[in-house]
């Protein structure tokens, strides 16, 4: 075998490298990100397999269990104890994961898609369109997120779909600003100039050259937005607005509403749902931080 | 400098116009007619008629909008459906409580966050650095209302050190010229009340301030790490300035620039967080008031309250931008 051949085999044996593959290897070597992935995995498994893992019915009340005062704590029968109406807390936590995950994913998808389109158009077209879009975003940013979501739910009425819309819309300006900034930074880049000089049309330059190169901060922000969305949903639930039937629905935030009065006798009723929220949020935050470092190694340790 | 302030004020105009349109459209998107939603369910045809005339609800939309802008510009947000009192009067009573809470939280966040971030950066890579990163990560991952419940459970219910609800002892009878209780107690030299008010303030302020604290600490750490390697810092060290002087004059002063912007942005988070914190501690501020308004479908209160808080947020950011330009001359000429 000649030297050239040997070199060729060596190159072929090496894993093809690319931004995403490299980023993935860096990500799985980051202990924080691994912990984050584990947390999110637990959260997702709980959400998807809730009916299989659950030991009881999430809404079935059993007032006999609380006949001797509130509330029996964790036991072999009820892993996390029972709540004020004798419902199994473990089961309700599992089902609660479904609400958080579903609302989180859909609302981030709403915020991300609308925000990306608006931000990309604003950044690439510029001029009047840019000013118009960004002034609207400024107005949306002027209303603190939770208040905006409250206003939207008040107008649309409570319900799962409307909560997703409310939390999602509150995210739109964040993504729009992010993408606009990154498009502006790349609009004059050499590869865009090159694409333009060989006659590629503007929309195609935007979608196949500029957006793919702007996507990594968006992914990081998307992960962090998942974390914020879970907190926002829980906040709305805690205030008792949002879902149609806050007493019945096993949603983590709303589980914390009433137990505020029972801290003396049954602190676990607050601690367990709260911990569930913290773990899922922490998971996404850890992954987000890990991704940020993985996609931009310059930031390591910052 | 004046040019910068004028330009910044002009930028405010589209935001205010947009905000008013948004709230105007919002009231019309509420279920039922605007008169119905602004007057509540128990109303009389005569009242509805009066409202329709006052806001010109039978006139074209642009006339309605103009009338709305006029009344709002006079800070007339209508009358609360639940209490039948003017929304503005209620804001005057409620807002000082929220200001007090938000200010206390902010003082805590900046007062602890900056030194913590600075120390973490100075000991970059050490145990303290990793520890503070970890704590700040938990800080941004914990919902403010859960933290509030935890603090309440630990310090009020379990240990009984601090009161768990309210803003002041219910039996205390003190005059409140400003409704800022801390200031009132100092003005009337009523030290017993001051202690009582501060005791009521600690838990809500810690709960509300801990998330901004985590963020301020993170930003400070990153900013200090950046500034530390600048040429002028090396020059300062090379010419033999004492390390403490370099830290104070050259590093911290420049690192504080990004932190001041963060403070403006955090105001929004503080206002959102106040709604949740006040709910946990039954703290009689804007947040608790808005929450009740949601349940009573008290749309005049929601409309006035949301608009008012948005205005506060916009103006705090204006002040931050202007002060930023004062401390950072580079911004003024850009």
Show the helix and strand layout:
The complex is a heterodimer of chains A (about 300) and B (about 325).
Chain A (H helix, E strand, L loop, with lengths): L2 H11 L5 H10 L2 H18 L1 H4 L35 H37 L1 H16 L2 H12 L3 H28 L2 H8 L4 H38 L12 H8 L8 H28 L7
Helix pairs in contact in A: 2-12, 3-5, 3-12, 5-6, 5-8, 5-10, 6-8, 7-8, 8-10, 9-10, 10-11, 10-12, 11-12
Chain B lengths: L1 H28 L4 H6 L5 H10 L6 H13 L13 H36 L4 H15 L2 H15 L22 H7 L3 H38 L2 H8 L4 H39 L4 H10 L3 H29 L1 H4 L2
Helix pairs in contact in B: 1-13, 5-6, 5-9, 5-11, 6-9, 7-9, 7-11, 8-9, 9-11, 10-11, 11-12, 11-13, 12-13
Could you write a compact summary of the structure shown?
Chain A is mostly helical. Chain A is 72% helix and 0% strand. In chain A, α3 packs across α5 (89-125).
Q: Can you describe what's shown?
A:
The complex is a heterodimer of chains A (302) and B (334). By secondary structure, chain A is an all-alpha fold. Chain A has one domain: MetI-like (MetI-like fold, Orthogonal Bundle), CATH 1.10.3720.10. Helix content of chain A is 72%, strand content 0%. Chain A has 12 helices and no strands. In chain A, helix 5 packs parallel to helix 8 and helix 11 runs antiparallel to helix 12. Chain A is flat, with a radius of gyration of 24 Å. By secondary structure, chain B is an all-alpha fold. The N and C termini of chain B lie close together (11 Å). Chain B is globular. Chain B is 77% helix and 0% strand. Chains A and B meet through helix 6, helix 7, helix 10 and helix 12 of A and helix 1, helix 6, helix 7, helix 11 and helix 12 of B.
């Amino acid at each position: 075998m000649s030297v050239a051949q040997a070199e060729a085999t060596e190159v072929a044996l090496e894993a093809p490298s690319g931004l995403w593959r490299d980023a993935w290897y860096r990500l799985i070597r980051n202990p924080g990100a691994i912990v984050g992935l584990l947390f999110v995995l637990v959260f997702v498994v709980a959400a998807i397999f809730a009916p299989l893992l659950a030991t009881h019915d999430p809404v079935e009340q059993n007032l006999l269990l609380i006949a001797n005062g509130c509330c029996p704590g964790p036991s072999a029968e009820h892993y996390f104890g029972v709540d004020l109406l004798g419902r199994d807390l473990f089961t309700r936590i599992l089902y609660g994961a479904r609400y958080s995950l579903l609302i989180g994913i859909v609302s981030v998808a709403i915020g991300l898609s609308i925000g990306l389109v608006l931000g990309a158009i604003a950044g690439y077209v510029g001029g009047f369109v840019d000013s118009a879009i960004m002034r609207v975003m400024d107005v949306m940013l002027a209303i603190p997120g939770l208040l905006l979501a409250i206003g939207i739910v008040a107008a649309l009425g409570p319900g799962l779909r409307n909560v997703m819309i409310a939390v999602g819309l509150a995210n739109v300006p964040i993504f729009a600003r992010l993408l606009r900034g990154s498009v502006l930074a790349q609009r004059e880049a050499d590869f865009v100039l090159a694409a333009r000089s060989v006659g590629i049309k503007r929309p195609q330059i935007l979608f196949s050259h500029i957006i793919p190169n702007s996507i990594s901060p968006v992914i990081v922000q998307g992960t962090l937005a998942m974390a914020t969305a879970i907190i926002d949903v829980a906040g709305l639930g805690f205030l008792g607005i949002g879902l149609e039937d806050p007493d019945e629905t096993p949603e983590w935030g709303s589980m914390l509403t009433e137990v505020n009065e029972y801290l003396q006798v049954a602190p676990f009723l607050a601690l367990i749902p709260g911990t569930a929220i913290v773990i899922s949020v922490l998971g996404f935050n850890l992954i987000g931080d890990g991704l940020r470092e993985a996609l931009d190694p310059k930031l390591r340790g910052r | 400098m004046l040019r910068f302030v004028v330009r910044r004020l002009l930028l405010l105009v589209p935001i205010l116009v947009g905000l008013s349109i948004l709230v105007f459209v919002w009231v019309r998107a509420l279920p039922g007619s605007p008169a119905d939603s602004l007057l509540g369910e128990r109303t009389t045809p005569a009242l509805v008629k009066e409202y329709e005339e006052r806001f010109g609800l039978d006139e074209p939309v642009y006339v309605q909008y103009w009338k709305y802008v006029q009344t709002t510009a006079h800070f007339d947000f209508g009358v609360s459906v639940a209490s039948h009192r003017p929304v503005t009067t209620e804001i005057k009573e409620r807002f000082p409580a929220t200001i007090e809470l938000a200010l206390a939280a902010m003082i805590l966040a900046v007062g602890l966050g900056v030194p913590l971030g600075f120390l973490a950066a100075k000991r970059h890579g050490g145990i303290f650095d990793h520890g503070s990163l970890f704590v700040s990560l938990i800080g941004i991952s914990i919902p403010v209302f859960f933290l509030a419940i935890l603090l309440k459970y630990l310090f009020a219910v379990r240990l009984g050190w601090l009161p768990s609800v309210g803003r002041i002892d219910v039996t205390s009878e003190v005059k409140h010229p400003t409704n800022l209780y801390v200031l009132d107690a100092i003005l009337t030299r009523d030290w017993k009340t001051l202690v009582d008010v501060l005791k009521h303030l600690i838990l809500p302020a810690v709960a509300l301030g801990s998330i901004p604290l985590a963020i301020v600490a993170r930003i400070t750490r990153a900013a200090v790490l950046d500034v530390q390697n600048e040429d002028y810092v090396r020059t300062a060290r090379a010419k033999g300035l004492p390390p403490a002087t370099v830290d104070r004059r050259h590093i911290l002063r420049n690192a504080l620039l990004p932190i001041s912007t963060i403070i403006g942005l955090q105001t929004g988070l503080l206002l959102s967080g106040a709604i949740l914190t006040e709910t946990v501690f039954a703290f009689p501020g804007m947040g608790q008031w808005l929450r009740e308004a949601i349940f009573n479908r008290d749309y005049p209160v929601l409309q006035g309250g949301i608009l008012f808080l948005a205005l506060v947020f916009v103006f705090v950011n204006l002040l931050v931008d202007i002060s930023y330009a004062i401390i950072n001359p580079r911004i003024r000429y850009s």
